[in-house]
Amino acid sequence: MSRTSPQPAGKDAEAAAGRRGFSRRSLFTAAGTGGLGLAAGVLAGSSLAGAREAQAASDAVAFHGAHQAGITTPAQDRMHMAAFDVTTTDRDELTAMLREWTAAIEAMAAGREIGAGGATAGDYEAPPEDTGEASDLSASHLTVTVGFGRTLFEQEGRDRFGLAARRPAALIELPHFPGDALEESRSGGDIIVQACADDPQVAVHAVRNLARIAFGRARVRWSQIGFGRTSSTSSAQTTPRNLFGFKDGTANLKSEDAEALAGHVWVSGAQGGEAWMNGGSYLVARRIRMHIETWDRTSLREQEAVIGRTKREGSPLSGGKEFTAPDFALQGSDGPLVPADSHVALAHPSRNGGVQMLRRGFNYTDGSDSLGRLDAGLFFIAFVSDPRTHYVPMQATMARRDALAEYLRHTGSGLFAVPPGVPEGGYLGQGLFEA
Amino acid sequence: MMMNTHARGGAATVAATAALLLAGCTDNTQSSASDGAVQVSSTADACTLSSTSAPGGTLKFAVRNEGTEVTEFYLLAEDGLRIVGEVENIGPGLSRDLVVMVPEGKYFTACKPGMVGDGIRAAFTVDAAPKGQEVSAGRAALQQTAVTQYAAYVKDQTEQLLAGTKEFAKAFAAGDEDTARGLYAPVRMHWERIEPVAESFGDLDPVLDAREADLEEGQQWTGWHRAEKDLWQPASGYQALTAAQRQQLADKLVADTEELQQRTQDLTFTPDKLANGAKELLDEVATGKVTGEEETFSHTDLWDFQANVDGARIAYEDLKPLLAGSGTELDASLAKNFAALQQLLDQHRKGEGFVYYDELTEAQVKELSSAVDALSEPLSRLTAAVVR
């Protein structure tokens, strides 16, 4: 059985993807969710792109590269993240699965169907290799990013796949933070898969098909859908709003800042058993439920004081505009204009020893709970070069002192080592298993 | 906030443009002249108002800081001393509104760039209010009465809390568990009634009221909930406190409560603190009590629930006279929803107290939760109504 032979291949693939680059389906979706405004935006965007990019009409993101896609890629609007528990005890079965995943991701990212037979061209008496729901959709900027959890290397003292000596020191067990209400069924996992796309159906298709390929070797432990990016990872993107209604990620790392990425996102200089992580990163995932209803009853004065920025513009309360640097020393009549326990005062890089994260989170809602309250919030995702220096200290401070913590509850958590990108002919995590 | 142009996209742009044309300033916020706001521009050396008079009633000043320093804006009484209303802490480039209820008379406006000196003053005239919107001149006195009454309530509750805590601590340290269990919930009610006040002391709240999940790794757990766990011990995996540890915990509980009582003596209150405090008490109910998370081991959440509602109701009743006139509708809604919630709570009374949280059915929890939401909505509008 082979899922791996790509079809069509090479330039034909680009052409095929290009044909689907502006499909019926994506137009319907745009009109359906955003109305005329969004549809107009799509048209404006395409005319802006102009002739220069005419030959690259495809909305595919390159899969191969020094780093995995889906980290510095301009944040897409939709996400489906799934954590897997590996069920096989056979190392070869595990690497075979990663090879098959690699081929499938490569195809999906290029806007192709999975396997030689795809969704409809296979054996008529057999179930199709590709599940088919993304067949008329474009590549939709799909990126699939894969990482490994602590338990893959060692679980309850067992060196499951002979990888224990290669577990990076930075792949720690995250400590308990004040107020954590983590649910076992939303936390941890041996392998993480982050699928992001413009179209939610494309992201869900990716996770569904990878889960299908994994059967017998790994099973889904938890999965989460996010419906709106809460960070901009490129200075070309506007700052989106989180479900508190505030702009989020104004001070986020941007993909254009190569120096900052090298210092804060990408692992470099790792030695010995950890050398496979060079060019990789660490993915921190936190499912942060928001007490939406109590927040909505909070006065605008209080909301702005809790965040430390104005709601409309996102200007720091010390004045100026969104991207004006906050002046934490500027005093008002009763303390700093940007309150010391406000979110921006605690989270801003300048208050954390210059430490920065590449935040790539999504708004989520999973319907409502038994009391009729929205089960919604922020699915926080950050990529950092070392969680011990770039996540734990800041989260500890925020959990303890952030005025916002009153409106938040962390219900899920995960930390994963994301290996570097895959070269042509390679597979995800090859360096870990073969070096 | 009294903004009438919350609409996104096109509508907001149109409104902003209108404001720009009418007010002649670079205001890009939602304050449009169409809502009758007096536009104020504060710069280093000028305090420019779009009008130097307005009809009485509810006045709105949309203040924009066009200088480079932090500014404040004041509406002062005819004597130039008494503050009728103020907005402080406006950062450079930012806008803030002052909404205040003002009777007919002569006033002064003042911008205070840099927050020093007497400010840049000018006379401001408030004409007769349109019929039906007249404002009583005694509003400031009503506000003062409200905060004085509430301060007395806080004083009384902290005194009772301290006395009860001493009694509880004595029984707890002596190993008289039945007495301690009997005192736990009723004594804590004094804390829960004034919870936002107690929580305003950021260092005392965690040592007195932290739950186990609120702790950081390595942080010492003290206070009420530590005692709770020892009085209602989990069936397995729990190491009971020794007599010496109990004594230590009891002593600290009393000492920290004494400190709290001392500090509340010096507290000053304002109408917005009362109203926000009432709203926060209902938030406490919504996030901690109605979900049974506050009292993990004793399940005495309904005592806390009642106490939070008591505290909110007292603040509301103290502020009630300020709702006469334009706040009548809000007042009626609050009265109705406080009564409805109390009626529901009363159904769960048992003996001197209440049933335990784990005895409530899912449907009953849902019913309580809905009643909390119904009250919380109008309560969240109380601050804006009483500070004017």
From TrEMBL, chain A:
It is an enzyme of class 1 (oxidoreductase). Residues 239-422 form the Dyp-type peroxidase C-terminal domain. It comes from the Bacteria. Binds 1 heme b (iron(II)-protoporphyrin IX) group non-covalently per subunit. Its cofactor is heme b. Residues 68-227 form the Dyp-type peroxidase N-terminal domain. One of its GO terms (molecular function) is lyase activity. It holds the Pfam family Dyp_perox_N. It is found in: Cell envelope. It catalyses: heme b + 2 H(+) = protoporphyrin IX + Fe(2+). Keywords: Heme, Iron, Lyase, Metal-binding, Oxidoreductase, Peroxidase, Signal. Its EC number is 1.11.1.-. Its main location: other. Belongs to the DyP-type peroxidase family. Involved in the recovery of exogenous heme iron. Extracts iron from heme while preserving the protoporphyrin ring intact. NCBIfam families: Dyp_perox_fam, tat_substr_1. This is Deferrochelatase.
UniProtKB/TrEMBL annotation, chain B:
PANTHER family: IRON UPTAKE SYSTEM COMPONENT EFEO (PTHR39192:SF1). InterPro entries: EfeM/EfeO_iron_uptake (IPR050894), Imelysin-like (IPR018976), Imelysin-like_EfeO/Algp7 (IPR034981), Imelysin_sf (IPR038352), Iron_uptake_EfeM/EfeO (IPR053377). Its main location: other. This is Cupredoxin domain-containing protein. The keyword ATP-binding does not apply. Residues 146-382 form the Imelysin-like domain. Coiled coil: none annotated. It comes from the Bacteria. The lineage of its organism: Bacteria, Bacillati, Actinomycetota, Actinomycetes, Micrococcales. It is found in: Cell envelope. Belongs to the EfeM/EfeO family. Keywords: Signal.
